[in-house]
Amino acid sequence: MMTIPNKLVKIEATKFVKNQIDKDITKVLSKIIKDAEIVFNSYPKDIKNGLYPFSKIVSIFNLYKLRCPLVKITSRNKKFLQHDFVARKKGELEYLRRWFPKKSPVKGMYGEKIDVILYSKKQLEKERSPIKSDWGVVAINVEMRKSSPVPPMTMINNQLGIKFGGNGEKINWKEYKKSVEFWKQYAIKQR
User: Fold this and answer.
1) How many other CB atoms sit within 10 Å of the CB of residue 19?
2) Phi, psi of 158 (to 5 degrees)
3) Residue 139, strand partner residues
4) Confidence band (pLDDT; 50, 70, 90) for 94?
5) By CB neighbour count within 10 A (0-12 exposed, 13-18 middle, 19+ buried), where does 112 fall?
6) CA distance 118 to 56
7) Would you say 114 and 140 are in contact if contact means Cβ atoms under 8 Å apart?
8) pLDDT at position 1 over 60
9) CA 187, CA 76: separation in Å to the nearest integer?
10) Which of 51, 70, 44, 43 is nearest to 142 (CA)?
11) What pLDDT does residue 4 have?
12) Smallest Cα–Cα separation from 25: which of 70, 69, 81?
């Protein structure tokens, strides 16, 4: 049974996520946000808590036929992996990252769902990324059946604090170890 809250929750894309998403997601960003608002407001029991106390995850069906960029690393495709030190945005610390280049012959599959990762208005104000809505989108992940964990370097960056582009939350070592095991086996294909 659907329950509708007294006040409808509003969601908006943060500047950070707009700079991180690819052109395919950019084309349908407003639709994804609208779908996330519908789920958040109509099916609150379906909203999952994120890794941090100020975060939520709204999963929606991938009606937009977006590809999941995750590719399982195999002995056949490992030779295409590249790596470098990169920063997500200016002012953040560089970290070692690996990926499959856009022109490599590996392909992600069409995702089954889209996870919309949200931070609260209060947290985004702390991070000097104010929004007008109740929740701000900080990531949009096209996923298969199961959601991928927060990458280890994101957890480390977050622990470094707001000065370095993180959120100041301590690492949950259990989640960190799960994340390391997952990301040893997968890499993102650039789009």
Assistant:
1) 10
2) -60, -40
3) 117
4) confident
5) middle
6) 5
7) yes
8) no
9) 14
10) 70
11) 53
12) 69
